[in-house]
Specification:
The two termini are 21 Å apart. The protein has 102 residues and is mainly α. α1 packs antiparallel against α2.
C-alpha cells in the first residue's frame, strides 16, 4: 500500500539496493517494483460511488507521486541491470521493462 511517505522513501530504497553489502537487494528492488505497480487507491476510487471519489484524490496522488519517484531513478536501475549479482540484475531488468512501457 502506498502512503503519503512512500515517494520520499523511494530514493533511500534505491540507494540501499545499490549497496553491494546489503543482503536484501533483490527484495528491495521487488518492493520498489511493487510501489511502481500499485494502483490500489486508484482502483478503489474507480470502484467507489461517484459521490465519494473525491475522498480518494489525495491517496491517488500519492500513487502518482510514488510512481514518478521510481521513474526518476531509472538510471540507477540501468546500472543495477548490469550488476554482478544475477538476482539483482534480473530484478533491475524487470523494473526497467516496466519503466520503458511508461
Amino acid at each position: 500500500m502506498v502512503s503519503e511517505a512512500t515517494p520520499v522513501t523511494v530514493p533511500f530504497l534505491v540507494e540501499l539496493a545499490g549497496h553491494p553489502e546489503a543482503q536484501c537487494r533483490v527484495e528491495v528492488i521487488d518492493l520498489i517494483t511493487s510501489i511502481y505497480e500499485t494502483t490500489q487507491w486508484a482502483d478503489a476510487s474507480a470502484a467507489a460511488d461517484p459521490r465519494y471519489r473525491s475522498a480518494f484524490e489525495e491517496k491517488v496522488a500519492w500513487e502518482v507521486t510514488a510512481k514518478d519517484a521510481v521513474l526518476a531513478q531509472r538510471q540507477v536501475f540501468e546500472v543495477l541491470a548490469r550488476d554482478a549479482d544475477r538476482g539483482v540484475a534480473a530484478a533491475a531488468s524487470r523494473i526497467l521493462s516496466l519503466l520503458s512501457s511508461y
